[in-house]
C-alpha cells in the first residue's frame, strides 16, 4: 500500500569491467545494502550491466571492434537469468528497482532502462530514443513505446537516460502522464567536472518543471579502471569526474548532499505531499498548460521492422460472416467483383 513517504536510494558504484557476472554481483549487493537501510526505490547508473561503453568515448571507430564485440557477449537479454535475479531481489525485499543495462536483441545493442515493481514484475522496458554522439556507434535507437509512466508500489515512475533530458518533448511526454518520481541516470566518470554541473542543473530543472521527485544515479570508475580503458593520460582526463548522484524534491531542492566523488548509496525520504504543494502553484500539464495553443503528438507504437498482413481464410457460399459482407466486393474471399 502506498504511503505519503517513500525512501529512495541512488547508487553510485563502479561496474566490473571484466564482464556481466561481476557487475551483477555488485548490483545484488547494493540492492541488499539499500534495502537494509529501508529503501523502497533503488536507481542504478546508465547501462550499468555489464558497464557503460567508456571505450567508445576515447577510442577511434577503427579500434572499437574488439571491445564492441565483447560488449555484445556480455550484454543482457531480456528476459534472462540476470533479470530474473533482480526480479527475485525486488520481490523478496518488496523494492522498486530501476536498472540500466546494455540490452542485446539479436544483432543490435540498446541502452535500456528496466523498472521492476515490488512484486518482481518488469513494468517498463524502454530504450534510449537517441544515443548521444559516440554512443551512436554502439547502440540502436529506441521508439516512442517506451515513453510511458509505470504505476508501481511507490507511485507513478517515469524514466529517461542521460541526454534524453535535453529532448524537452520526451520529458513532456512523461510529465503529461503525471509522473510522481522520475528515475534517471548518467554514465558518470565522463567528460569532466562540467558534466556533473550540467547534470545538476538538468535534474533540478526537471523536478521543478514536472513537479515530481527526481532520483538520479551516475556511475564511478576507479583510477585502475581508467588506466585500463586507455593508457594516454590526456585522454584519461575525459574519464574522470562528471558524477552527480542526487535526489531532488519537486521544489528543486537536494534532499541529501549529492555524491560527486567515490562510491556510495545516497538515501533520502520523499514526502509525496510536496507534489501537490508544487503543482498547486504550477502544474505544467494542467492548470498552467495551454493545450489549445501548444500540445504534443506522441507516437507510442513500437517501431517494428516487419508488418505482417494475414489473408482471411476462404468462406464457403452461404456462410458469409458479417465481417465478410462489409468488405469491398473485390476483396471478399471466393467472390468476384462486380464490374460496370
Automatic annotation (TrEMBL):
Domain of life according to the entry: Bacteria
Pfam family, one: CN_hydrolase
CN hydrolase domain boundaries: 6-272
Region ranges (Disordered): 312-340
Stored PROSITE patterns: CN_HYDROLASE, NITRIL_CHT_2, PIPLC_X_DOMAIN
InterPro entries documented for this protein: C-N_Hydrolase (IPR003010), C-N_Hydrolase_sf (IPR036526), Nitrilase (IPR023919), Nitrilase/CN_hydratase_CS (IPR000132), Nitrilases_CHs (IPR044149)
Family: Belongs to the carbon-nitrogen hydrolase superfamily. Nitrilase family.
Protein known as: Nit6803 family nitriliase
Taxonomy of the source species: Bacteria, Pseudomonadati, Pseudomonadota, Alphaproteobacteria, Hyphomicrobiales
